[in-house]
Amino acid sequence: MENQDKPYKRRVRYKGKYPKAYKEKYKELNPDKYGDTVAHVIDKGSTPAGMHIPIMVKEIIDFLKIVPGQTGLDATLGYGGHTLEMLKCLEKKGHLYALDIDPIELPKTKARLEKEGFGEEILTTELINFSDIDMVLEETEQFNFVLADLGVSSMQIDNPERGFSFKNDGPLDLRMNPEIGIPASTRLRRLSQIELEGMLTENADEPYAEIISKAIIAAKENGIYIDTTVKLQTVISDALQFIHVNSRERDIKKSCQRSFQALRIDVNRELESIYNFLEKLPFALASGGRVAILSFHSGEDRLVKKSFKRYLREGIYKEISSEIIRPTDEECRINNRAKSTKMRWAIKA
Ligand SMILES: C[S@@+](CC[C@H](N)C(=O)[O-])C[C@H]1O[C@@H](n2cnc3c(N)ncnc32)[C@H](O)[C@@H]1O
What we know:
This protein is of the alpha/beta class. Helices cover about 45% and strands about 10% of the residues. The protein is built from 14 helices and seven strands. Strands 3-2-1-4-5-7-6 form a seven-stranded mixed beta sheet, sandwiched between helices. Helix 3 (about 80-90) links the parallel strand 1 and strand 2 (about 95-100). Helix 8 packs antiparallel against helix 9 (about 210-220). The termini are far apart. S-adenosylmethionine (SAM) binds near residues 54, 102, 129, 149 and 273. The site of S-adenosylmethionine (SAM) has 22 residues, from helix 3.
């Protein structure tokens, strides 16, 4: 009867119509149980907590021309939205390999796909960086189709404990694999002003790179340890108060977004991984093999474009997309996160 003395603790519930805190979104985090809520959030053009809406699915599937019996690779499994569509095309014949570096989300996605009827007989998921694509080739033949949907997933961005966004306070971490490397807070402490400025410029074209980098160094010299997302946002915001009031709020938000992006790219060594992946990619593709890549900022797209053009010149690719392919206006309307997407493709000779 001990329990009778314990005060009754209410489950955390939605506060009002749209909860703000990630953990309170328990309905969105349970799509099996609360399908209606999830559908309603998607209808509003938002991504439900704990989910990722796949982008340009039709364009990708139309291009890849998957035939049952083929072997393919999804280099960026994420929530598995694209993986699922590619698996359906295989009609239970052939095999799909799917990689990710996120040890938190990968097992959840694997379990979800297994529940949908796609077990190990058709799908192999591996916690491998796509820059090590050659390691996967030790287990299988060359791929007939490859997809890479670069960047981060909505699950990573939305979870405040992972520190990808300043929308909610959380530890300034930003690692896709929190078991590898150093958190962004440590990285910030180690970089000099010049290095910080270079990082903000190169990884995000930040126009206020010099001012922001100087503010971060000044904060450090004043004994402020920037170890949370909101602390970094505050340092940036305080440094940019000189911006004209008419555009101040909007410009500061953009600078914060770009600074977080720059730091994320740096901490995860994203451009190095993409470069290595693109170098090895043609040798991982079978003759006639098709690859589609979705990128989300100019640094990524530049690397894809350069590599595709180079291998086309060398006769290793027989055809590449002549220009960037964008999602339709309708897709951008129903999925905010699609807006910055650029797709390119290549076909191996
Ligand atoms: C935009 S999401 C992919 C979403 C996925 N297409 C879907 O439909 O759910 C990008 C994913 O790629 C993973 N990722 C990023 N860099 C990676 C790398 N170098 N190697 C493997 N996975 C990576 C991230 O952890 C994230 O889960």
